[in-house]
Design goal:
The protein is mostly helical. It is 87% helix and 0% strand. InterPro entries: DUF2975 (IPR021354).
Length: 144
């Protein structure tokens, strides 16, 4: 909950103020103020979705209901949040890649793309394992 509250403050106060300050300091890049604000707020929103879904999954673990269809919905929320963040990052990577003067930032964005893609694929594998375990548990409960 503390992390979620910090992210809300970061999302509503810090990021817009930071990009406004950057626009004042670099007037030639001021046209990027609102797109950068929107993209960064969207990424924080994706992180918030992952935090809430993980919290709900941990609640299901505590109640010994993790192997139920309800848990698959929360895992789907995590997968979709990661996919949405990855797609927006891909757009940022392409924009920066075509407009960059040096390769530093595009390389950093490429590494982030690969890392988030690996995280997303890991979540897809975990979802398949959860689905299989849920099916097995349902079959065992039917037998017992």
């Amino acid at each position: 909950m503390v992390l979620f509250g910090i992210l809300v403050v970061f999302q509503t106060l810090s990021l817009p103020g930071q990009f406004a300050y950057m626009a004042e300091q670099s007037p030639d890049m001021a046209y990027l103020r609102w797109p950068m604000t929107a993209v960064s707020v969207f990424w924080v929103l994706c992180v918030q979705v992952v935090i809430v879904a993980t919290w709900r999954l941990l609640t299901l673990v505590k109640k010994d209901r993790i192997f139920s269809p309800a848990s698959l919905a929360w895992v789907d929320a995590i997968v979709w949040a990661i996919a949405a963040a990855w797609l927006v990052l891909l757009g940022v990577f392409l924009y920066v890649g075509f407009n960059a003067d040096d390769p530093g930032l595009p390389l950093l964005l490429f590494l982030m793309l690969v890392g988030i893609a690996a995280l997303g694929l890991l979540m897809v594998v975990m979802r398949a394992l959860l689905r299989q375990a849920t099916t097995l548990r349902t079959d065992m409960e039917a037998v017992i």
